[in-house]
Amino acid sequence: MRARLLLAVAVLILPAPAFAQHSGHEGHAPETGATQEAEQDEHAGHVLPEAEEPPSQTSEADPHSAHRAAPADESAEHADHAAGPVVPGPPPEAFTGPEHAADAYFGETAMAQARGEMTAMHGAVPTHKVLIERMEARFHEGEEGYLVDAQAWVGGDLDKLWLKAEGEGVFEGDFEGLEIQALWSHAIGPWFDLQSGVRYDFNDGADRAHLALGVQGLAPYWIEVEAAALLSDKGDLTARIDAEHDARITQSLILQPRAEVSLSAQDVAEDLVGAGVSSASVGLRLRYAITPQFAPYIGVEYDTVLGETRDRRRAANRDLGGVSILAGFRAWF
Questions:
Q1: Close Cβ partners of 259 (under 8 Å, ≥ 6 residues apart)
Q2: Residues 100-142: pLDDT tens digits?
Q3: Running DSSP on this structure, what letter comes out for residue 235?
Q4: What confidence tens digit (pLDDT) does each residue in 181-210 have?
Q5: Where are the domains of the chain?
């Protein structure tokens, strides 16, 4: 009985130092001497194995502060990962050796033929397109007229043969004129082609041939541009520039602003054209693409003659321009 009593007393007495030590932390009571040494010994396991003694910055009142500082160290350790992976460039050996290494195994003749077939398959396939840009009726001051503007080309990525035609007239009235162009087009960049060839004008009693040189392509902001200089068989130098842009309201509803300017380097008396800017027009066409290949439209356009050309046309009692209401369609195949 006495032995059991002594064992119970020992169990109650042994945990007392540890309980007293932790109660000192809760009350923040100052500790000196053996008590501080005992606490350091108890928490020595929290210190990194390489350290012989705990850091001096760690507070005794918060022996776990070293653990709370760890995330900052981890973020510094992984700072390089935030910048993304570093992709090394090709080794210097990649730029040595023959240009076509496969020639050494399959022969130069066989590989040259294979490369030619690959080029033809991916870039030299001839194709074609026919575009009716404007087929419209025009209503101007009680007069009903028409205009046709069409283009077609055949060729590859770099070189094409273009055919262009534009004509206008009055319903149940006079035919005002038709121009036809045959042009050879060569790509001078990813967006523009250089075009050269001939143009022939069929006018009422004043047919004329021209040499043509110009550019056609896509300018910044998706503006389609066509500009050409023309030298007639009588030595007259003229030019024309037109630009248009498709502003998509929806996938099928498209608003197209369009502008055109004509210029002449000299007076052309038989055409009632004066030197300088001879005519200009601006218009808006709203079309609805029933299919990608066919889109009817309505619109409005203002055209005018300028400068000396205006004086010549007024003296000849010719139309000086004005506002026209448009209705037509655009198609391609």
A1: 242, 243, 244, 280, 281, 282, 283
A2: 889 989 999 999 999 988 877 776 778 999 999 999 999 998 8
A3: S
A4: 999 999 999 999 999 999 999 987 678 999
A5: 17-81, 92-122, 128-332
With 0-12 / 13-18 / 19 or more C-beta atoms within 10 angstroms meaning exposed / middle / buried, residue 31 is middle
Task: Report how far apart the first and last C-alpha atoms of the chain are (Å, whole number).
Answer: 113
Yes or no: say if 202 and 177 are a contact pair by the CB < 8 Å rule: yes
- pLDDT reported for residue 120: 77
Q: Which residues pair with 321 in a beta bridge?
A: 304
The number of residues in the chain equals 333
Bridge partners for 228 per DSSP: 214, 240
Question: Which amino acid makes up residue 24?
Answer: G
For residues 252 and 288, give the distance between their C-alpha atoms in angstroms, rounded to a whole number.
6
Average pLDDT over residues 82-86: 64
Domain 128-332 is in which class? Answer: mainly beta
For the record, the structure tokens of 222 come out as: 């998706």
User: How far apart (Å, rounded) are the C-alpha atoms in residues 234 and 294?
Assistant: 41
Question: Rounded to whole angstroms, what are the CA distances from 308 to 117, 232, 277, 290, 312?
Answer: 58, 20, 9, 44, 6
Closest CA to 261 of 284, 238, 245, 237: 238
| Burial readout 186-222 (b: 16 or more C-beta within 10 A, e: otherwise) | ebeeeeebbbebebebeeeeeebebebbbbbbeeeee
Contacts of 280 (CB under 8 A, 6+ apart): 259, 260, 261, 262, 303, 304, 306
Rounded distance, CA 172 to CA 285, Å? 25
DSSP-assigned letter for residue 68: H
What's the CA gap between 131 and 162, in Å, rounded?
11
